[in-house]
Amino acid sequence: MNIYQQIINQKLKTLTPEDLMKYGKQYDIHVTKAQAANVLKLIRSKQNINIFNPEEKNQLLREIARATSPEVARKLNQLFIKFTG
User: Fold this and answer.
1) Helix-helix angle 70-84:54-67, to 10 degrees
2) CA 12, 68, 16 angle in degrees (round to 5)?
3) How far is residue 85's CA from residue 15's CA, in Å, rounded to a whole number?
4) Coil, helix or strand at residue 62
5) CA end-to-end distance (rounded Å), the chain
6) pTM above the 0.85 mark?
7) Is 10 exposed, middle or buried (0-12, 13-18, 19+ CB in 10 A)?
8) Could you tell me if 49 and 56 are in contact, meaning their C-beta atoms sit under 8 angstroms apart?
9) Are the C-beta atoms of 61 and 41 separated by less than 8 Å?
10) Interacting residues of 25 by C-beta distance below 8 A, sequence separation 6+
11) CA 14 to CA 69: how far, in whole Å?
12) Buried b (16+ CB within 10 A) or exposed e, 12-28
């Protein structure tokens, strides 16, 4: 994992729900505060999540879909793509 990937993965661990909502708004992806809080709780529960690894990202998105909704998971995947693309 290169330094850019480490920075992005670390940033995910330190985001607040407000941060996630702000980033979503920048890319026209609406996420409520409750949804953002649930998503960040899942992300923080992972020891060493690497959203650049497709398998890890997809597993996380499946968990997000179960905890929130498939629509939220799709929206967050769009946001992840913006960060990692």
Assistant:
1) 150
2) 30
3) 19
4) helix
5) 15
6) no
7) exposed
8) yes
9) no
10) none
11) 23
12) beebebeebbebbeeee
Report how far Cα 23 is from the mean position of its chain's Cα atoms.
10
Tokens 């398998």 identify what position?
Answer: 55
3-state helix, strand, coil in the chain (%, to 5): 75, 0, 25
Which residues contact residue 80 at a Cβ distance below 8 angstroms, ignoring those fewer than 6 apart?
51, 57, 61
**Rounded Cα distance, 53 and 70, in Å:** 20
Confidence of residue 47 (pLDDT cuts 50, 70, 90): confident
- Cα separation, 69 vs 61, whole angstroms: 10
Q: Residue 22 half-sphere exposure, CB side, CA atoms within 13 Å?
A: 5
Is the CB of residue 84 less than 8 Å from the CB of residue 52?
A: yes
- pLDDT tens per residue across span 1-34: 789 888 888 888 899 999 988 988 888 788 889 9
